[in-house]
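Consider a concrete sample entry:
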Amino acid sequence: MESLGGQHESGTGAAAVTASPYLQESIMTQFWADKRVLVTGANGFLGSWVARKLVEVGADVVCLQRDALPRSLFVLDGTIQQVALAWGELEDAAGVMRIVNEFEVDTIFHLAAQPIVSTALRAPVSTFESNIRGTWHVLEAARLSPKVQRIAVASSDKVYGAAAALPYTETMPLDGRGPYEVSKVCEDLLAQSYAATYGVPVAIARCGNFYGPGDWNMSRIVPGTIRSLLLDEPPIIRSDGQYVRDYLYIGDAAEAYLRLGELAATDGVRGEAFNVGTGTPSTVLQVVELLVEMSGKPQLRPVIRNEVHNEIRAQYLDGTKAQRTLGWTPGTELADGLRAAYEWYAKQLKHEPVVS
């Protein structure tokens, strides 16, 4: 684990609506070729995209998998057939250690987590076990391994809580209060601790709200709205529609993670957290109205239930640090990303709507 140096070139990628400058550079430099990379949570929404991009750039990928999810993008696009699968759970320290050592992993993308706020509210202990205990198991396995040279850990913009001023910057205190938010705060601080105490080459991404092809959590606003529109049903908005979020296209997020992983061991990146977002927040109602317009079904006006009162009203990120230090900027406009999502779900749900 003490191997903190290394040559930092780049890898390729694909499938985002608009390729970022990083991906164009990566096609030429091939940083990830033949790297032995562990992805936790590879059959999740973000993990599916990161695993696919790593395969595309020639990495030798092993994925820690707990459950079989046949509708995951990880399965649907064939990534699962191009990686090694290691069955296990983050909560099993010996199992995590075995995978890191036996596969001689040199890079870890720790993306696995219990990601749903409502699930965390119902079952906080299992969320803490997965998100907190699981993270220290990954970090400890990496610390004890002589092979691991870089780690990227998935935190969240939710760690900041209800800040008095926006956008969030990395210097703000971590003030998440709900079970999910607290679990991500702990994950974030654990990564910082292992970097500061043991010199572990780990860096942290705090991302906004992901959207795009591959998200099957229909409680989220983008897939839930698209599903309603495809079924000729009015979309449901649980809040008053004015909650503000930073919506980040999933392909852009995956590119940011590859860049973070590449640079995780370098000075100015190791031990640091980076906001990954667009800097252009949107309200829930704006997102829904864009999707209604794309559907060609203007008669399906959203039903605003105004039932949500315990969520933070506005959350969005200042991504200056990531742009300056990592050289990453998002490449996908909201309308383009939503259109890609709409078309993907239309195919997956066996509909053929007219998209303007």
About this structure: The domain at 221-244+280-315+332-347 is CATH 3.90.25.10 (UDP-galactose 4-epimerase; domain 1). The chain has two domains: 21-210+247-277, 221-244+280-315+332-347. Residues 113 and 167 are 25 Å apart (CA to CA).
